[in-house]
Request: fold
Amino acid sequence: MEAWSLFGLSEHLERLSKTGDPLEVLEATVDFEHFRGWLVEGLGYGDGARGGRPPFDPVSMFKALILQAQHNLSDARMEFMIRDRLSWMRFLRFDLGGPTPDEPPRVCRRPFELS
Reply:
């Protein structure tokens, strides 16, 4: 059986743009790069010499906080929404299938699980 889709990813994003994606309007209205210097200084990003996982782009994280506050989302729900909405991923400049901010691991117990 041949796999098919209604439209490809690029066509989907193009259609979102044509119908008036409000995040594209926000991106065009606000110069988010203007805040980069303050964000880097305020967050105290190091040069990476001590190792560890590289941080997410501070401007993308600032945009994520704006979306989170605008939609009144918890951290866990925000992670889901970033993964779920292509328009949010485009706004945040995240790659499809790429990493998103990590959620702390949860302990999940089934109600009828026997020890």
The radius of gyration is 18 Å. The chain has a mean pLDDT of 81.
